Request: fold
Amino acid sequence: MTSREALRSVAPRATTGNPIARAHMPGIPRPGEPGWPSRPSRPSIPGAPLIPGAPDRPLAPTPDPGPVPPTRVWLDPHADWQGKLYERLLAKRIVLASGLLDDDAASRLSAQLLTLDAEQEDPIRLELQNLRAELPAALAVMGILDVLRVPVRACASGEISGPALGVLASCPQRSGYPNASFVLAEPRLHLGGTVTAVTVREQQVTRMLDTLYFRLADVTGREVDEIRDDARRGRVLTTGQAIGYGLIQGQVSGSRPPVPGGPPRPGPAALTTAAPQSRAGRELGRGHAGGLDQIRSGNCPLYTLALNR
Reply:
């Protein structure tokens, strides 16, 4: 037996029952399949998707973008008009408070008041416009107003409602514009949590409400229960009624241009003040016509104080 015959006898023979397993590379057709024999393609880039019809070579790198053309930006010179206006008001010692008085607004308002109090000894004019306040924020500003060394003159315009009346009542001098309105109302609070937490929070809110009502009662000369009942009913007062109620001391009247040959021009503003404890003033606060008749007849003393801007 030759060497070739010996190798043939040792090598396994393929049979129909036990075919010989052969290795196969994916992408290359097997013998007998269409496209065989073929040239093996280049290996693709790892991670790159196979696109049908795309060349089997990496694409050319994308060129870097060129320089960005210069762009002209027009700046609005009046973009910061609100901040500049507030700075001019602060230079005149005028502080404006409007909208909702929350924790952030109370912090800014307190900072402005303390800054003006530390700079000079001149009075501060506090303008309250359509002011409504959260109860904790209003009490915080009330505490700041109590410790200021300089007098604060408050002028109310629009609608002043709820705890914001405590801010107004904390000012030594208080006045209202002709179309101002004052709403005695209880603040709305939403409490949540466990029964113990809600009970503790309710007691805290009750103490804060008592502080607010005691301040209003001290300023107006009325009973605390009367203030509380008016707040529960949501009583609305006009400027004249607020004077009789004792909430403000008078009404602000604007100045008019001088008339040629007439009397000299009055001051910037005048504050007409009525005695809050008089019976005529109380009747005016309740909207009775009798109080207005007494004021017209001269039975209710009136006096005028000049308000410096």
